[in-house]
Design a protein that fits this description.
The chain is α/β, with parallel strands linked by helices. Helices cover about 35% and strands about 10% of the residues. The chain has a five-stranded parallel β-sheet, with helices on both faces. A hairpin with a 2-residue loop joins strand 5 and strand 6.
Length: about 375
C-alpha cells in the first residue's frame, strides 16, 4: 500500500493589525525615510501630524440648506402670472404682475404702449423678466441675433399696458440722442427731451438695443440710472441744478439687449461691438440669456405666423435650420438662421409654392459665395435633388 500522506502543518494566522499598529508602522516608515541629519523635533512633528487619528482625510459633505420662501399672495390690483402667461414647462410658483390702464400714463407717453401680437408665443424666460419688472430691477438680455430679445420686451409691455421705448445704439451715438439737446424754434433756444429722458419723466420701459455698439463713454451716462437710487442729470440743459436733476418715475424701467454681454466679439460675427465697462455691467441686477427656440416652440411660432404651412414642410424647415445653426456654431457658416428668417421663409413658401425657391430669396442669397456650396449641400440633404 502507498505510504500515508505527510501530516498537514497548520501555520498560525498572524494577529490582525490594530489601528495603533498601523500608526506605529507609518511612524517607522516616516522615520526611515528621513536622513540622520534632520532635527528629531521636526521629524516628530511631521509624524504626529501624519498619524493623527482625529484628522479626517475628507471633509463631510455639507447638507443642503432648506430655504423657506414666502407663500404667494395675490396683491391688490395685480394679476396672476400663471393665469396670464402660458408656456411650457409650466413654472412651479406664481408671481404678481401689474397691469396698467391707459389713464395711468401722462398724455405725452400714452401713444408709446405697443399693440399686442396675438400670434406671439411666450418663452420660459418671460418668468424671470416679469419678476424683474415687478421688483424694479435693471435687466440685461443676451443672446444671438433673432433669439427674440426685443420682441419679448415689447410684447410684455403690450400685454401689461406699459409704454415702450426702443433705442437702437450705434457706434457714432451721441449722448444728446438719448437724453436731449438744445434746439432753436421760432428764434428761441429751447430744450427738447430725448427718448430716455421722456421715459424717466413719465414712466415706461426703455430698451437700449444692441447696447454694446455704443462707445463706453456714452453708456457711462446711463450708470446713475442703473443704481439703487437712480437719478438722471441733464448736464447740457441750461437750467438750475434742481431742474437738471430728475428723479425717475416709479414705473420707469431700463433694459439693455445685446449679443456679447458687453465683453466684445472676437468671432467677427457681431462687428462693431465694443468692450463695456465692468462698472456698467455690475449695475444690472437681473441677467437673462435667450437662446434659439426649441423645435416644439418654433413649430408653434411658425404655425401661428403662417397657419397654412403644411406640417411636413414645417418639419423640413426646422431640420434645415438646425443644420445651419450647427454649422454656424462650428464656425463653418457665417450666416445663421433666426426665427425671423424662418417666418419670412414660411410666408414666401405660401406665395411661391416651392420651399427651395422661397429659401433662395429669404436666406441663401444673403450667404457668402464661399459658403454657398455647403448650404446647397444642406438644401439637397433636406429637400432632395441632384
Amino acid at each position: 500500500p502507498p505510504p500515508p500522506p505527510p501530516p498537514t502543518i497548520m501555520t498560525p494566522r498572524p494577529p490582525r493589525s490594530t489601528p495603533a499598529d498601523c500608526r506605529r508602522q507609518r511612524q517607522m516608515c516616516i522615520r526611515d525615510s528621513f536622513s540622520k541629519g534632520v532635527d528629531a523635533a521636526v521629524i516628530s512633528a511631521i509624524i504626529d501630524d501624519a498619524t493623527d487619528s482625529t484628522v479626517e482625510s475628507r471633509p463631510k459633505k455639507a447638507e443642503p440648506v432648506k430655504i423657506e420662501t414666502e407663500e404667494f399672495v395675490l396683491g391688490d390690483g395685480k394679476k396672476s402670472f400663471l393665469d396670464t402667461f402660458k408656456f411650457t414647462p409650466k413654472p412651479k410658483r406664481d408671481h404678481n404682475v401689474t397691469f396698467y390702464e391707459e389713464e395711468h400714463w401722462d398724455v405725452n407717453i400714452r401713444p408709446l404702449v405697443p399693440e399686442v401680437n396675438p400670434n406671439y408665443v411666450w418663452q420660459p424666460q418671460i418668468e424671470l423678466f416679469a419678476v424683474a419688472m415687478e421688483q424694479g430691477d435693471t435687466v440685461l438680455l443676451a443672446g444671438p441675433t433673432g433669439s427674440g430679445k426685443s420682441t419679448m420686451v415689447e410684447q410684455y409691455c403690450a400685454l401689461t399696458g406699459r409704454p415702450f421705448v426702443r433705442i437702437n445704439m450705434t457706434g457714432d451715438m451721441e449722448s444728446s440722442t438719448l437724453f436731449g439737446q438744445l434746439k432753436v424754434e421760432d428764434g428761441a433756444t429751447i430744450w427738447v427731451d430725448g427718448p430716455v429722458t421722456e421715459a424717466v419723466r413719465y414712466g415706461g420701459v426703455v430698451l437700449v438695443d444692441e447696447w454694446e455698439l455704443c462707445p463706453p463713454e456714452i453708456t457711462y451716462g446711463l450708470q446713475r440710472l442703473l443704481e439703487d437710487n437712480p437719478m438722471l442729470m441733464l448736464k447740457e440743459m441750461p437750467e438750475s441744478v434742481g431742474e437738471r436733476q430728475i428723479k425717475p418715475h416709479p414705473d420707469f424701467r431700463i433694459v439693455a439687449g445685446g449679443n456679447t454681454l458687453g465683453q466684445g466679439d472676437v468671432s467677427g460675427e457681431y462687428a462693431g461691438t465694443q468692450v463695456q465697462s465692468n462698472a456698467t455691467l455690475d449695475r444690472f441686477l437681473t441677467v437673462i440669456h435667450l437662446g434659439y427656440l426649441s423645435k416644439t416652440h418654433e413649430t408653434k411660432v411658425l404655425k401661428k405666423a403662417v397657419p397654412t404651412l403644411p406640417k411636413e414642410v414645417v418639419k423640413q424647415m426646422l431640420q434645415f435650420a438646425s443644420f445651419v445653426r450647427a454649422g454656424h456654431k462650428q464656425g463653418g457658416l457665417t450666416m445663421t438662421m433666426s426665427p425671423r428668417t424662418l417666418i419670412n421663409w414660411g410666408k414666401k413658401i405660401m406665395y411661391w409654392g416651392d420651399p427651395v425657391v422661397a429659401l433662395n430669396i429669404a436666406y441663401l442669397d444673403k450667404v457668402a459665395e464661399s459658403e454657398r456650396p455647403e448650404v446647397t449641400r444642406l438644401v439637397k440633404k433636406v429637400f432632395g435633388g441632384v
